[in-house]
Amino acid sequence: MTVTLADVAARARVSPATVSRVLNGNYPVAASTRERVLRAVDELDYVLNGPASALAAATSDLVGILVNDIADPFFGIMAGAAQSAIGDTGTGRAGGEKLAVVCNTGGSPERELTYLTLLQRQRAAAVVVTGGALDDPAHIAALTAKLAKLADAGTRVVLCGRPPMPGDAVTATLAFDNRGGGRLLTEHLLALGHRRIGYVAGPAERSTTRDRLEGHREALAAAGASGGGPDAPGDGAADRLTVHGPYTRAAGYEATRELLARDPSLTAVVAANDTVALGACAAVREAGLRIPQDVSVAGFDDLPFSVDAVPALTTVRLPLHEAGVRAGRLAMGTDTPPPGGVETIAGELTVRASTAPPRA
Amino acid sequence: MTVTLADVAARARVSPATVSRVLNGNYPVAASTRERVLRAVDELDYVLNGPASALAAATSDLVGILVNDIADPFFGIMAGAAQSAIGDTGTGRAGGEKLAVVCNTGGSPERELTYLTLLQRQRAAAVVVTGGALDDPAHIAALTAKLAKLADAGTRVVLCGRPPMPGDAVTATLAFDNRGGGRLLTEHLLALGHRRIGYVAGPAERSTTRDRLEGHREALAAAGASGGGPDAPGDGAADRLTVHGPYTRAAGYEATRELLARDPSLTAVVAANDTVALGACAAVREAGLRIPQDVSVAGFDDLPFSVDAVPALTTVRLPLHEAGVRAGRLAMGTDTPPPGGVETIAGELTVRASTAPPRA
DNA sequence: CTGTTAGCGCCTTCAG
DNA sequence: CTGAAGGCGCTAACAG
After folding, report:
1. Do B281 and A308 touch (CB under 8 A)?
2. Residue A342 belongs to what H/E stretch?
């Protein structure tokens, strides 16, 4: 029923090996022969058998992209960029195309491991793992081991928007400077004159959460050290003004209500990301406070909707698209990895209308 | 280097055939033997060779999910839901898991076809195609032919959020009632008393665009027919008050500026979807008009951010998650297809704060 | 430049 | 319930 390479060979009156060679284009073939083969392929409407090819060649054209939440544009943008960078490599003919696919872990460590196993089973050519890591040592160990196995089997591994991992299994790591970004944002607020700043953090066990929060605390500490005075924020106050929750709008809303209850004199709220910031805005507004006149609000990531929020959100812009493209190229082996294997990508403070000096 | 099924067999002191049988679980094996095999698998850290398995069995555990834009939550939600419905089928052991992957076509018909070919090459177990179709007959024909080939090769094909296609290649179609939804929305505006309604449509060549616009026009026509009077909207006016553009916020912004310029007396703007509506809101606001006091704005889809817009967006809720889950189950063969193969899913008018009666 | 020859690792009848 | 044997469709050395 299904036409095989042998059928094509017969029709083109050449050997199967020759057909394979023109299809893969990695071996000299006479132009006339090639054309005859290509014609036979078209006439027979032949489609290469991927599994057979992968089995014989011991590598497949599958590239996996792992994301924590496919419904979140943060991941969608990176994944889409990586996928197009990978897909565009295709030579046009049936040969070169890679099948770039995205796998949604839903943030679950088990599913992350499961997908990696599935990809290993398929003998994937490369794997791109995006998004913040879990801080759990057991999971990190399991993940490291799994990635090492993949690398052993010849799969290229690149991390995108995720901190470096131990071991040498990883081809390249693109890490976001979350800590630096967090610091920038809070410094901005501090410079504006804010002193009582609430922080809506992400899930406690994620590296992204930790880094951004650390940046925030660093800025606070620096201000406290330099500024002095009884009004300066200390660590105790910072703890009291931090609430953790998932990276969702609903969590941002709840957390902000809580913060406002704990300290009604808050003049600013920093959210772990833009999505959370949207929830924070809703809570602030519901409390009868104006943004930014009564309370400033800031996010992180600069997702597309942030510029449209009312007021437009002050945030830290992360070059998600560029990072995704780079990750895709690295996975294809068309870009050379950075020296040391790790590249840190800075965030850019983007000041818009949601932050302003506090009321006098 | 890599451990094979034969290694496992040797260690468990059984034949390769037996190992295969316990792994696939589709054949009786003595409990004690099974346990011995499973232990060997764990000890050797064996991972099935997907390509080899697929080659021998002539089917793989790959399931492809095609989306138009992975950075758009509309698709992310459906894809995520489908993927989890498919992944959750796993029996837990290395056997049953399917590898559900999402492929981003970027709305390009060529890439859609390319991905389908790639999936066909992998001998995918099933394919879920989401999102509106292109109205181009040539592409529809090509797509139909490709899907027929996939179906021939034993791949299950399900359409999700897309109109039915000719031929019997498709296992099941989950179509959204875009026309009905569009009608509901405009009827709502009409009932509120609006007469001059602008429409920001999507790309002209997409079925989703066409259907939603038709619903809008139907409502207008019905009102014109029943209402009469010189102020009643006619087709000419409707044409003049419709602007097409891509499904982006920027397009919504531009189109709305244009509409406002064409007819400053507009009292309502209906957008093709929520994302576009956000841009429309920005344009309305920038024109110094208030929502909904001066101009009402409505969207479509009810994406998560819509409830957070200011004011919260009136829209038509589509059960994206539920549809995705259903599509996933249909793709797995765990749900039975609807009679006739086509199931139409209605949208639900969701009235929020962005629409109100026009000013007197 | 092209044909021949062996497998790649697994599944699946067919015997036992 | 278990083992033996053949082949799935393709690629990769080797020869020529």
Report:
1. yes
2. strand A342-345
C-alpha distance across the termini of chain A, in Å: 81
Which residues in chain B are contacts of A123 at CB distance < 8 A? 49-51
Would you state the structure tokens that stand for residue A342, as one six-digit string?
Answer: 């790790």
Q: Could you please report the per-residue DSSP string of A66-105?
A: EES-TTSHHHHHHHHHHHHHHHTT--SSTTT--EEEEEE-
CA angle, corner A126, sides to A120 and A127, nearest 5? 75
Comparing CA positions, the residue from A194, A143, A187, A189 lying closest to residue A169 is A143
Residue A76, min C-alpha distance to chain B (Å): 4
Chain-chain contact of A76 with B77 (C-beta, under 8 angstroms): no
At residue B105, what are phi and psi to the nearest 5 degrees? -85, -15
Handedness of CA A326, A332, A334, A340 (dihedral sign): positive
- The CA-atom distances, in angstroms, between A232 and each of A239, A266, B21 are 14, 14, 69
SS3 B141: helix
Find out whether A146 and A119 touch, Cβ atoms under 8 Å.
Answer: no
Size of interface A-B (CB pairs under 8 A): 164
> SS3 of A194, please?
coil
Distance CA A182, CA A212 (A): 5
Q: Which residue's alpha carbon is at the shortest distance from the C1' of C6?
A: A56
Omega into B311 within 30° of 0, i.e. cis? yes
A99 touches chain B (CB under 8 A): yes
d(CA A184, CA A280) in angstroms, rounded, equals 20
What is A131-187 written as a DSSP string? SPPB--HHHHHHHHHHHHHHHHTT-EEEEESS---SSS--SEEEEE-HHHHHHHHHH
pLDDT per residue of chain B (360 residues) written in tens, 0 to 9 = 789 999 999 999 999 999 999 998 888 889 999 999 999 999 999 999 999 999 999 989 999 999 999 999 999 999 999 999 998 665 433 446 789 999 999 999 999 999 999 999 999 999 999 998 999 999 999 999 999 999 988 999 999 999 999 888 999 999 999 999 999 999 999 999 999 999 999 999 999 999 999 999 999 999 885 434 444 455 566 678 999 999 999 999 999 999 999 999 999 999 999 999 999 999 999 999 999 999 999 999 999 889 878 899 999 999 999 999 999 999 999 999 999 999 999 999 999 999 999 987
Angle between helices A16-24 and A31-44 (to 10 degrees): 90
Determine the Cα–Cα distance for residues A244 and A64; give it in Å rounded to an integer. Answer: 31
- Cβ proximity of B259 and B223 under 8 Å: no
Q: Please, how many CA atoms are within 13 Å of residue A144, restricted to the half-sphere of its CB?
A: 14
| Contacting residues for A236 by C-beta, under 8 A, at least 6 apart | none
Nearest nucleotide to B15, CA against C1' atoms: D3
